[in-house]
Amino acid sequence: MAVKIVTDSSADIPPQLLKELDIAVVPLYVRFGNDVFRDKVDISNEEFYKRLVSGEVFPATSQPTPLDFKQVYEELAKDADGIVSVHLSAKLSGTIPSALQARESMQGSCPIEIIDSLSITGGLAMVCMEAARAAKAGAKMEEVVKIAREAVPEIHFMVLFDTLKYLAKGGRIGKAKSLMGAMLNIKPLIGMKDGEVVPLGKARSYSKGMEQQYEFVEKTIREGEVKELAIMYNTSKDEADALADRISPLYAREKMLMGEIGPILGTHGGPNMLVVCIRGNLAK
C-alpha cells in the first residue's frame, strides 16, 4: 500500500512523467459552444489552438464534477494508504470545491488530503511532482502532505503573453487589470501571488519580454535559490527552446522541465504564451 497522488489537467505534466511518477489526472472541461471536451482526453493541444485562433466561438473552461473526482478517488483507494490531491488555485477555478465534495461523499473510506497549489501549469506541476517523488520513495501520508505544502510558497513564475485579450475575455485577469490600458502596444508579463494573477511588468516586444524572463532566472540563480526550473509553452516552442538554451549555462538543460501548456490556461492566455517557473527562493 502506498500514498497515491492526484492532480488536474491544468498541471500540464508531460505524459511520460505522469507515468513515471504514478500521478493520476482528473481532466477539466473545455467548451466551444455546445461542444464539450475533456482536457487532453477528447481534444489535443493542436486541435484546441487551431479552434481558438480560427474558430468563431470563444471557448470556456469548467472544473471537473465531484463525480469525476469520486470515481478517481474510489479506484485509487482500493490500493492506497491515503490520497494527496494537488490542484490549481481555488481563486482561478472551482476544481478544489469539487474535490472537497467528492471527499465528503466517500465518508472517510480513505484518507484524502486536498492541497491548493496557489498556482497553475508548471507551478502546479512542481508541487505535485515533489509530492509524487516523496510518495514513490515510500514516505507516509503526513510526510507527503508536509512536503507538498512546503513546496507551495516556493513557486514563482513569470508568464509572457502576446496579448491580454484572452485573459480579459475569460475573466481571470485579477489584479493585472492595470495592464489593460496599454494592451495593444505591449507584451504583458504576469505572475501569481496568493493564488491570484498579478502584474509583473511589460515589454515593448516579445523578445524584450523573453529578456526579462532570462533576467528573472539569472538574478534568482545569482542571489536566491533555484531547486527546480520549468519552461512551459504552447505555440511558441522555438522561443521556449531558445530561452532554455540561453539559460542552460546557468541551469543544466537536462534538469529543466519542458512542458506544453494545454487548453485550460490556453483558453485564458491565448497563443504564444511562454512561462518560466522556479521552485526555490527569490533574491531579496
Descriptive key words:
10 helices, 13 strands, 6-stranded mixed β-sheet, 27% strand, 284 residues, alpha/beta, Hypothetical Protein Tm841, Chain: A,domain 3, 4-stranded parallel β-sheet, Rossmann fold
Tell me about this structure:
The protein has 284 residues and is α/β, with parallel strands linked by helices. It folds into two domains: 2-27 and 64-152, Rossmann fold, CATH 3.40.50.10440; 154-281, Hypothetical Protein Tm841, Chain: A,domain 3 (2-Layer Sandwich). 38% of the residues lie in helices and 27% in strands. The model has no long low-confidence stretch (mean pLDDT 92).
Helix and strand topology:
Layout: E1 2-8, H1 15-21, E2 23-26, E3 29-32, E4 35-38, H2 45-54, E5 60-62, H3 66-77, E6 80-87, H4 95-105, E7 112-116, H5 121-136, H6 141-151, E8 155-160, H7 165-170, E9 187-193, E10 196-203, H8 206-223, E11 225-233, H9 237-247, E12 257-260, H10 263-269, E13 274-281
Parallel strand pairs: 1-2, 1-6, 6-7, 11-12
Antiparallel strand pairs: 3-4, 3-5, 8-9, 8-13, 9-10, 11-13
Helix pairs in contact: 3-4, 5-6, 8-9
Any idea what the shape is? Answer: globular
CATH architecture of the largest domain: 2-Layer Sandwich
N-to-C SSE string, H for helix and E for strand: EHEEEHEHEHEHHEHEEHEHEHE
Query: What is the mean predicted local confidence, pLDDT?
Result: 92
The portion of residues assigned to helices is 25-40%
Structural class estimated from helices and strands: alpha/beta
Content of β-strand:
25-35%
The number of domains: 2
Count the E strands.
Answer: 13
Runs with pLDDT <50, length 5+? none
**CATH topology descriptor of the largest domain:** Hypothetical Protein Tm841, Chain: A,domain 3
In the CATH scheme, the class of the largest domain would be: Alpha Beta
DSSP helical segment count: 10
How far the N terminus sits from the C terminus, by CA atoms, comes to 43 Å
